Amino acid sequence: MLKNKEKLKERFLRDPLPLRLGALSATLGRISSSARNSNNPDVVTDLLDEVKYLIEWTAGDAEIETAAELVKMQRLIALWISAWHENSESHSQRVLLSVQAKDWSDKVIDFSGLI
């Protein structure tokens, strides 16, 4: 469960859209790393939960194509959240989430135009 959700939302929404997308990309990168390396499934679950909200707070301000991609990501993230504790012991599932999150991170940073 996301702690201090309202505080995070308030701080997050102060930034312009490109910076919010950059922050979203960075959090997806943290998921990629944590899925592969963390022994605590709660770390990954918490990051997935955070990303779900970052997408919710960002998609409405993005161009329609970007918003559609973000919503697709959000749906898949919700599935990962529901299955992660059961699948976190599986090396192949950890690698799969890691690769998927890295792909999402790369897409989102492209959406941001920051690089």
Task: Please tell me about this protein's structure.
The protein is globular. It has helices at residues 5-13, 17-37, 41-59, 64-87, 91-112. The chain is an all-alpha fold and 115 residues long. The protein has a single domain, classed as Four Helix Bundle (Hemerythrin (Met), subunit A). 83% of the residues lie in helices and 0% in strands. The protein contains 5 helices and no strands.
**Overall geometric form:** globular
| Alpha-carbon distance between the two ends | 32 Å
Q: What is the N-to-C succession of helices and strands? A: HHHHH
Work out the count of structural domains.
1
Oligomer designation: single chain
Radius of gyration: 13 Å
In CATH terms, what is the fold-level topology? Four Helix Bundle (Hemerythrin (Met), subunit A)
Strand content: under 5%
Derived from helix and strand composition plus strand pairing, the structural class reads mainly alpha
CATH class term: Mainly Alpha
Low-pLDDT windows of residues: none
Largest sheet: none
Helix count?
5
Mean pLDDT: 95
Question: Tally of extended strands?
Answer: 0
Helix content: over 70%
Under the CATH scheme, the architecture is Up-down Bundle
